[in-house]
Amino acid sequence: MSSSFKWGIIGCGLIAPKFFQALENTGEGHVVAAASKSMRRARRIQQKLGIECAYGSYAEMLEHEKLDAVYIANTHAEHYQSAKLCFEHNLPVLVEKAFTRNEAEAEELIDLAGMKNLMLMEAMWTRFNPATVKIRELLADGAIGEVIRLKAAFGVKMPLSMKTMPWNRMYNPYLAGGALLDLGVYPLAYARMVFGRRPERIGGSAKMAWTGVDKTSEYHLDYGGGRRADLMTSFVEQRPRDAVITGTKGIITVPHFSGADRLTLTRPGGAPEVIECGANGFEHEILEFHRCLREGLTESPGMPLSETLDVMRTADALRTLWGMKYPGE
Ligand SMILES: NC(=O)c1ccc[n+]([C@@H]2O[C@H](COP(=O)([O-])OP(=O)(O)OC[C@H]3O[C@@H](n4cnc5c(N)ncnc54)[C@H](OP(=O)(O)O)[C@@H]3O)[C@@H](O)[C@H]2O)c1
User: Fold this and answer.
1) pLDDT of residue 107
2) Which of 129, 155, 167, 205 is the most exposed place for a label (fewest CB within 10 A)?
């Protein structure tokens, strides 16, 4: 396995440059090619970032380039086909969240990667940030006892205007838009991590945009015995992205949980202890992906595919409750 990883990017939008820079920061690899459905977008990112090659077709990039891995950063509706295409070229893939449109697509990708013995990981970058790693350690050490409650919100104001439709993927059902898949997967993945299992019962409600996707949604996950997660996401309201994890012996508060660099641990009778954890960024997930490639792993123990699948299953259950289907499902 090479010591400097050659990456290709699929999808030349807003997040691709952030990945490019983070990869450079790791010192472990470079983006050598970028592919878009539009040659104009591919060229634009090529010029902006100084990428060697640009392609106006994903397939062409995969046919012509010698890559070690591919970062998939197009719409949620395209992740499944794009990852399948990479597998046909025997390439490991890092797939942006939301992993796919639904559980069935996620399951198929996981099976395919397994059959081909290829590394596959959801780009749930928050999972590898030092603050999240610290939380996992604290929970495993029983620092707050047994987790009984999680409260987390993730609201980012993203107005829907006629001017930005149909390009605006956030509200577009054909592109698997909606607050649930765009933002909700963060608290859902957090709940899966904190409780360590799937919920026993799932409840929730959503307010729909006129396009047919959720613009604000709330999720109540019941883990039995009074343990529960109350989560909320919104495109309409800006919300503090804080998470509060309550255990039988203490509380962990995480300001801005999706990109946290510190947390507060409070135990009965003690003063709140602020724990500084270090900078967050995409670098951590990239380093983990490289480590897995070097060690011949096909999935990351830090972001197991079973957890990705559980999150998609929970999202499906919520959409079923709301009667929200994507075209073609
Ligand atoms: N990890 C994070 O912090 C983070 C943050 C933001 C987004 N994301 C995830 O990263 C992925 C890309 O997000 P982004 O913000 O970069 O998205 P974006 O800028 O809106 O678009 C990314 C790419 O998706 C395709 N696309 C977007 N709108 C389209 C449309 N209307 N019709 C056809 N194709 C369209 C295009 O792919 P082509 O160029 O190939 O045609 C575009 O370059 C999503 O899965 C998103 O949830 C992650």
Assistant:
1) 98
2) 167
List, in order, residues 6 or more apart from 260 with CB less than 8 Å away.
126, 129, 131, 132, 254, 277, 280
Ligand 1 within 6 A of 259 CB?
Answer: no
Does residue 125 have its Cβ closer than 6 Å to ligand 1? Answer: yes
pLDDT tens digits for range 212-253: 999 999 999 999 999 999 999 999 988 788 999 999 999 999
Burial degree of 256 (CB within 10 A; 0-12, 13-18, 19+): middle
The pLDDT value recorded for residue 18 is 98
Judge if 115 and 134 occupy the same domain.
no
CATH of the domain at 273: 3.30.360.10
pLDDT number for residue 258:
86
pLDDT of residue 239: 78
Is 76 in contact with 181 (CB distance < 8 Å)? Answer: yes
Distance 295 CA to ligand 1 centre (A): 30
Q: Which of 45, 169, 171 to mutate to test the pocket of ligand 1 (most atoms within 8 A of CB)?
A: 169
Whether residues 179 and 220 fall in one domain: yes
Domain termination site, one of 125, 159, 181? 125
Mean pLDDT of the residues in the chain: 95
The total of structural domains in the chain comes to: 2
**CA of residue 300 relative to chain centroid, distance:** 14
Is the shortest distance between the CB of 198 and ligand 1 below 6 Å? no
Give the residue ranges of the chain where pLDDT is below 50. Answer: none
Domain that holds residue 50: 5-125
What does DSSP say about strands 243-247 and 250-254: parallel, antiparallel, or unpaired?
antiparallel
pLDDT digits (tens, 9 = 90+) for 230-241: 999 999 988 788
Return the ligand 1 atom nearest residue 75 CA.
Answer: 24
CB of 313 within 6 A of ligand 1: the answer is no
275 and 237 in a common domain? yes
At 249, list the tokens. Answer: 């012996």
